[in-house]
Design brief:
Elements (H helix, E strand, L loop, with lengths): L14 H7 L2 H4 L3 H17 L5 H20 L10 H13 L12 H37 L4 E6 L2 E7 H26 L1 E2 L15 H7 L4 E2 L3 H6 L2 H28 L6 E2 L18 H25 L12 H25 L1 E2 L1 H9 L5 H10 L4 H18 L8 H5 L9 H4 L2 H7 L8 H16 L2
Helix pairs in contact: 3-4, 3-6, 3-8, 4-5, 6-7, 6-12, 6-19, 7-10, 7-19, 10-11, 10-12, 11-12, 14-15
The structure holds arginine (ARG).
Arginine (ARG) binds next to helix 6.
């Protein structure tokens, strides 16, 4: 394997060291960014008269031809320590002497720092676009289910009636915060480390403002030691990814339950389900389980990143090469999970009747029944107790509150009247919760509008 670092050494490195040291198998993902960074660097070198126009022309054409061959798949990426070495070697093979001038006034520490930021910025933008797609899908499905009543749960026990739209909008709001978290992280990391050199910049009159703006960063980083050794942004984005995966995982857990025969609220499309090798009847929500499982994998990588950096003295240390496999895997896992979530939810079918039936059971209108008595003048605590007794009576009788005749109700409180049936009807229970953020269709419409506005203004 050809090395960039020659001269000082009198013999070849051990093969085992080469294997341990190599990052090419995974950092080749940053080939495009490495070329982009080099193109900006040489343009700046030419403008600053550090290299000649002729050298610049040869180098930039050489780099462009390498990019073209990589795109076409005609240039196998192999035989070097890392992507930075590979591209420089290939350039020198193609254009000779001028290629050796590319590395003037910069270091590989510089390169890896800028390449990874460029790569991360692109990935974050892809993730953000996918989050918006998923929110749009939740909005679409919510509009179909504004009046689809279902039990809302606490402790996984039926608690109060909500609607499917209300539940989807809960997730929509989580995803909105996720989008903002990525945006905040993006803005904080949008600084260009190129020109930091190995750690202490360069003796050449390089123009860091120029390379920063050529590469589309908001500004150059302020301190060169920090510039080459900062991986905060990887951890911050990994945290945003972890939190977002936690949201997807909760949504998946919910759907796994809903797909069970016990709930029967939902059926996934065949395209997003799997079968069993032995049980012919099975239709499994593997996609949801995989996303739930991959959430743990993303958390694990976050811990890898934090641990990798915690004991490192300034500035660059080779430990930092360990960031990439973990970080790339996080980004890919998140992108893939989001990509599959949207069409899975789009194609899912909901059993509105099963949801309604579940909402009828479990006495989820008991709070409404107590509120009914309280509104008629009974102190809420007393009303609560009366309805508790009423529920115990119904459990004994194996019926719901709505099944009781008025006489039975009146034996618990004389305040009960004919209008109680309307007050504890599920649709009434929903429409009466006409409070900001609540499940009443008017309120969920407002929640939908807010998220629509959020998407439109991105
Ligand atoms: N491959 C290295 C990494 O991924 C970058 C090269 C810097 N190497 C060095 N010996 N300073 O972090």
């Amino acid at each position: 394997m050809t090395k960039l670092w020659t001269g000082r050494f009198s013999k070849e490195t051990d093969h085992l060291l080469d294997v341990l040291n190599a990052s090419l198998p995974f950092d080749q993902k940053m080939a495009k960014q490495d070329i982009q960074g080099s193109l900006a660097h040489v343009k700046m070198l030419k403008d600053q008269k550090i290299i000649s126009s002729d050298d610049y022309d040869q180098i930039s054409q050489g780099l462009t031809s390498i990019q073209k061959d990589i795109d076409e798949g005609s240039l196998p990426i192999e035989g070097a320590e890392d992507i930075h070495s590979f591209i420089e070697q290939e350039l020198t093979l193609r254009i000779g002497q001028a290629g050796k001038k590319l590395h003037t006034g910069r270091s590989r520490n510089d390169q890896v720092a800028v390449d990874l930021r460029l790569y991360t910025k692109e990935s974050v933008q892809s993730i953000q676009a996918l989050i918006l797609d998923l929110i749009s899908m939740l909005i679409q499905r919510s509009k179909e289910h504004l009046t689809t009543v279902m039990p809302g749960y606490t402790h996984l026990q039926r608690a109060q009636p909500v609607t499917l739209a209300h539940v989807w909008m809960a997730y929509g709001n989580m995803l909105k915060r996720d989008w903002i978290r990525f945006q905040n992280a993006f803005e904080l990391m949008d600084e260009c480390p190129l020109g930091s050199g190995a750690l202490a910049t360069s003796t050449y009159p390089i123009d860091r403002q120029k390379t920063s703006s050529l590469l589309g960063f908001a500004a150059p980083t302020s301190n060169s030691i920090d510039g080459v050794s900062d991986r905060d942004y990887c951890m911050e984005i990994a945290s945003a990814c972890s939190i977002m995966m936690m949201h997807l995982s909760r949504m998946c857990e919910e759907m796994i339950l809903w797909c069970s025969a016990e709930f029967h609220f939902m059926e996934l499309d065949d395209a997003f389900s799997t079968g069993s090798s032995i049980m012919p009847q099975k239709k499994n929500p593997d996609v949801c389980e995989l996303i739930r499982g991959k959430t743990g994998r993303v958390y694990g990588h976050l811990v890898t990143l934090l641990t990798m950096q915690k004991g490192l003295s300034l500035a660059y240390n080779k430990d930092m090469q360990e960031d990439k496999e973990a970080f790339f895997d996080i980004l890919e896992t998140v992108i893939h999970s989001l990509q599959v979530m949207t069409p899975m939810i789009k194609s899912a079918k909901f059993d509105v009747e099963a949801m309604h039936q579940a909402a009828l059971g479990g006495y989820i209108n008991a709070t409404d029944c107590a509120d009914y008595l309280a509104k008629k003048g009974c102190p809420f605590r007393d009303a609560y107790k009366i309805v508790g007794e009423l529920v115990a009576y119904c459990i004994e009788k194996k019926c719901s509150l709505n099944d009781l005749v008025l006489d039975e109700m009146q034996s618990f409180s004389s305040l009960f009247d004919e209008d109680v049936y309307d007050a504890i009807d599920l649709q009434t229970c929903i429409s009466q919760r006409n409070v900001l953020g609540g499940p009443a269709p008017e309120q969920v419409k407002i929640q939908i509008q807010e998220l629509e506005r959020f998407i439109e203004t991105r």
